[in-house]
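User: Before I run my own analysis I want an independent prediction to cross-check against. Here's the chain; please return only the structure tokens and, at the end, one sentence I can use as a sanity check.
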Amino acid sequence: MENEGNARAFRRMRIFGRVQGVFFRDSATRHGRKLGLIGYAQNLPDGSLAIVAEGQKAKVDALFEWAKRGPLFARVDRYEFDEIKIKEAIAGFEIKYE
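Assistant: Structure tokens:
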């Protein structure tokens, strides 16, 4: 039986507020890489930001806890989580520009 510390998680967090133009994607990417996660950070057309992360549940949770505050100049008004299916292969943690 897999213990909870090694359980895997695959989730998306959408963040609303002042989250574009404040180095949120770059900061999230650095945090994701430091934690050894796979995924990406992406600005969305509605002004929100998405972070998609896969890895050990505790590390995904740690990234999302950080994202509730974000980088210095960000202002997080609200956030939501959902489950998604990835259509393309992701290697490492990156900024997604599309």
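Sanity check: The beta strands are 8-18, 38-43, 49-56, 75-82, 93-96.
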